[in-house]
Amino acid sequence: MGGREAPAVGVRSCRRCGGRFTRERPLVCRGLHGQCYDHARAVGELHRYPVTRRTIDREEMARLEAAGLSTGEIAERFRVSPGAVRVARHRLRRGGAVVPGGGS
Ligand SMILES: [Zn+2]
Description:
two-stranded antiparallel ribbon, 5% strand
């Protein structure tokens, strides 16, 4: 390998406790362990740890979808993975539009 590295996430250790991310203690959000994230949120320090990942603008994504772009094309626009686009779309659908007859 070598050479080409994914530039999206450059966080290897927790920004709060400095510990490495492992399977038992994975990176959850904002470059933090789940526990550290919860703690930071609880004490109101979440703003100290800005979001590390590129975000997908929902309105922009809806526009691109309406324009007929594929998932892959939209992913390229936002420079994220197609999977991230699918997740964002799913959230968009759930949060943005009411599904008729779709109870919980
Ligand atoms: Zn941590």
